[in-house]
Amino acid sequence: MTMTVEQAGLTVIDPTAYAEERRLHEACALLRRESPVHWVDGLPEYNPFWVITKRAHILEIEKNHQQFRNHPRPVLVPAVEDQRQAEQGQLLRTLIHIDDPDHKALRPVAADWFKPKTLRTMQENVDVLARRYVDQMAARGSECDFVSEVAVHYPLQVILSLLGLPESDFPRMLQLTQEIFGGDDPERRRGETPEEQMAVVMDFFAYFQRLINDRRETPTEDLASAIANARIDGEYLSDIDCASYFVIIATAGHDTTSSTIAGGLHALLEHPDQLEKLRADPSLMPGAVEEMIRWVTPVKEFMRTAREDYEIGGQTIKAGQSLLLMYPSGNRDEEEFDNPDVFDVTRRPNRHVAFGAGVHFCLGAALARMETQAIFAELLPRLEHIELAGTPEGVPSTFVSGLKRLPIRYRLTGAPVPA
């Protein structure tokens, strides 16, 4: 049955569409053609909003951060959660929840740690970890679930090591991350009620409060110490600002990258000609990584709220109305990308919007690129054979999502290096 524009607009609130992807991309393509700035209303579960599907409009909104604010609705949540936040305030105050002047003051606290010049000092450690996880694949034999055994653990170890957390705490951080981003997934969410979901945030806060106290009492040379001991106007960050900083780095700092790595491998398996092209010419790797990021687009949306009336795409956005920025749609925009539904490791240029734009451009973009390039640079030269060993499965989530299962069968060269 042919999808209508109204049905396409409703698709963006359906978590299962993000796990299936084909239906999501079909809906977004229809909206780009017929209603690129589309009003979604009449739903008891959600407050109304505009869906923004074209890349140029997404960039225009992102770069006009004074007119379009993150507060009070930074991500798509049900109306009951919007109401709770309006009455009680936001429990989290991460960089994605706040606007200037707070954002301008808080972002520099960790920004220097994620600049390419600084990250180059991490390259050797990232390469070692990439080799370790490929060696573990070789040691397992000929089959594994690439998501649960490789893709989620490798970037998790990178970002939590940067923070300075003990390796014994990594499984707990992984569980909390999957719970906080997996509220729409029965396999990952903690309980059914908002209170049970809020308990995840409180568990994060309890963990990081202990970390804050420890690093202030005994500072070290890691990122956790930099955040815990940062001062603005001579004062420590508040406990909620400090803990929120840890939450966004510890979660988004690995979950989005793991989605790119798993989704990137899946794309190569679905396009064996691109896999062979990349294996034959490793110099294509940086561009291939950009194409993986475009193809997967792990962060599916952020929201903005208009401060004043604004004209865009032939529509008038009224002051106080919210807009849903659909990054997967912007990254398949026919006006920007030739053959956008084709995975092409030689794509040039590749001006995707997966990292956002403007003052809220992703803090960890350079690290995500480094990690993704390192794991594929280690894996692809050692591949003699690889194929799917089952059906891949996605995470149903309207915010951050990717694959949660990617069963593969493979043959690798090179004996694993002893740990």
UniProtKB/TrEMBL annotation:
SUPFAM superfamilies: Cytochrome P450. PROSITE patterns: CYTOCHROME_P450. It comes from the Bacteria. InterPro entries: Cyt_P450 (IPR001128), Cyt_P450_B (IPR002397), Cyt_P450_CS (IPR017972), Cyt_P450_sf (IPR036396). Belongs to the cytochrome P450 family. PANTHER family: BIOTIN BIOSYNTHESIS CYTOCHROME P450, P450, PUTATIVE (EUROFUNG)-RELATED. This is Cytochrome P450. It comes from Pseudonocardia eucalypti.
